[in-house]
Design goal:
Blueprint lengths: L1 E5 L5 H10 L3 E5 L2 H10 L1 E5 L4 E3 L4 E2 L10 E4 L6 H7 L1 H5 L3 E4 L6 H9 L4 E14 L2 E13 L8 H12 L3 E4 L3 H22 L3 H6 L1 H20 L8 H10 L8 H7 L10 H11 L4 H10 L10
Parallel strand pairs: 1-2, 1-6, 2-5, 3-9, 6-7, 7-8, 9-10
Antiparallel strand pairs: 3-4, 8-9
Length: 308
């Protein structure tokens, strides 16, 4: 299968490397020092599931350099969505399908406005991974899973083909029977995890074990679930308890990608995570004071700030 990876960080880099190692024709789109390192020494996975070194690796600075693709793994940061989608329009025009594995719940809609709604397959990635140095991705823990489906949850040739490619690469991949609920279930866990670990600049362990910070974590989950219920996404009130149990099962050192970004002085996705909860909550009449606090507290770092 001919695959383009748009965004070669913790998500795109990891799954793209597994697909390439299985014999697929994979081209990565990267930038900066990560691009330079991949060109010079390939791409390494420092993974608890299994280490991997791809060398040489097909990598370009611009998607415009790629002639064609069957599938595009779309995993750029949320703030780069529109510019990345714009660069993929020539590939889409030639028949490429965009499988989006970004954070949040608005990715497919945002990409679809630019590249065409019918070109997008929504998906969910569940993985603890990030770039630890240019050309090297660290994946921690025993889970690295993706779920995807057409927006209407119906079978299609393109989802079946990509699913088969993932299985042959030993990727834990599922064709979801209800992708809308999966997106919101992940969002209701991710947005609070990102908020609290970015706020504290530390992992989930201390947050969940301290009664006061756990109270904030639960309030963030409750607000997100309440918004999801109001929007009829498939979330239920009982999901709050399930999500809190999920935090207790995480490795104590697990940081969300937004926490890694704030520690590195990079722009963070707070406006697309907590910001979306607040905006959608306002639209459907659900109060979101905890997420409002997160936006206010992290506002000085939203656009990125050098580490002092």
């Amino acid at each position: 299968m001919k695959i383009t990876v748009m965004g070669s960080g913790g998500v795109g880099g990891y799954f793209g490397a597994r697909l390439a190692a299985a014999g697929n024709d994979v081209t990565f789109v990267a930038r900066g020092s990560h691009l330079a390192a991949m060109r010079q020494g390939g791409l390494r996975l420092d993974s608890d599931i299994g280490k991997l070194h791809l060398d040489p690796v097909q990598v370009v600075a611009d998607a415009g350099e790629i002639a064609a693709a069957d599938a595009i793994v779309f995993a750029v940061k949320l703030q780069d969505t529109e510019s990345a989608a714009q660069s993929l329009k020539p590939l889409v025009a030639k028949g490429a399908a965009i499988f989006t594995f970004q954070n949040g719940v608005e990715s497919a809609e945002r990409i679809g406005k630019i590249a065409g709604a019918k070109s997008v397959v929504p998906g969910v990635a569940r993985i603890a991974s990030h770039i630890i140095e240019p050309g090297v991705i660290r994946q921690a823990g025993t889970f690295a899973r993706i779920e995807f489906a057409e927006s209407d949850n119906k079978p299609s040739a393109r989802t079946a083909a990509f699913h088969e490619a993932c299985k042959k690469a030993d990727i834990d991949a599922t064709l979801s029977p209800n992708i809308g609920r999966e997106l919101w279930t992940k969002f209701a866990m991710l947005a609070p995890h990102a908020a609290t670990t970015a706020l504290t600049r530390g992992p989930i362990g201390p947050v969940r074990s301290n009664p006061k910070s756990r109270e904030l974590l639960q309030a963030l989950v409750e607000e997100t679930v309440a918004v999801g219920i109001a929007l009829k996404t498939g979330l239920e009130a009982a999901d709050t308890a399930k999500i809190m149990q999920g935090y207790d099962g995480m490795p104590k050192g697990f940081l969300a990608s937004m926490a890694h970004d704030i520690l590195a002085g990079k722009p963070i996705e707070v406006d697309h995570l907590s910001g979306v909860v607040v905006r959608l909550g306002s639209q459907c009449g659900v109060p979101t004071p905890a997420h409002t606090f997160i936006i206010q507290a992290l506002a000085p770092f939203a656009a990125g700030k050098p580490v002092v």
